[in-house]
């Protein structure tokens, strides 16, 4: 709850900042998982479908592939966020990193005269990511008995170790 409150208060402060208002930038945020479990399952099913679709398309945008992969790696975790512009995901990451970027807004908001909000945000995010360690777990559903032989980390581009995960979920009965 503390992270959510930090996130909310920082976003409210940024949304109300005069620079944001003068640039006519609107921030809208949603909380996934605060709704019904069925809605959350539907969300993750769509993310898996997008991942598998992009995985098999050679011409798919690499940045989009990486953001979908990062998002899928957060499926079994709490505390993640997405910065999107309309339907396009710009950055996917841990909420703790997003909070650091939001807390640094006072230091990067002046760049918005020369850059778009999302570009300035990405730049600050990239600088913070250089100082943060990461460990990604990616559970990929096997389709038609096929799974990729290799997978690169969406965060650092190194080849990921491969593990097999099994999962059983039961709702009573």
From TrEMBL:
Pfam families on file: SEO_C
Start and end residues of each Sieve element occlusion C-terminal domain: 41-169
UniProt-listed InterPro entries: SEO_C, SEOA
Lineage: superkingdom: Eukaryota
GO BP term, pick one: phloem development
Coiled coil: none
Membrane-spanning parts: none
Protein name in the entry: Sieve element occlusion C-terminal domain-containing protein
Native source organism of the sequence: Ficus carica (Common fig)
């Amino acid at each position: 709850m503390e992270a959510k409150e930090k996130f909310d208060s920082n976003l409210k402060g940024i949304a109300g900042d005069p620079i944001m208002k003068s640039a006519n930038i609107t921030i809208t945020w949603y909380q996934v998982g605060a709704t019904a479990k069925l809605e959350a399952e539907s969300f993750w099913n769509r993310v898996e479908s997008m991942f598998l679709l992009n995985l098999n398309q050679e011409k798919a945008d690499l940045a989009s592939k990486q953001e979908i992969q990062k998002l899928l790696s957060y499926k079994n975790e709490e505390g993640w966020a997405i910065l999107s512009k309309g339907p396009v995901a710009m950055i996917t990451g841990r909420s703790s990193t997003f909070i650091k970027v939001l807390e640094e807004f006072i230091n990067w908001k002046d760049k918005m005269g020369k850059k778009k909000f999302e570009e300035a945000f990405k730049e600050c995010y990239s600088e913070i990511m250089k100082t943060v360690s990461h460990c990604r777990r990616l559970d990929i559903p096997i389709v038609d008995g096929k799974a990729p032989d290799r997978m690169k980390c969406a965060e650092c581009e190194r080849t990921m170790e491969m593990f097999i995960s099994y999962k059983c979920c039961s709702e009573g009965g």
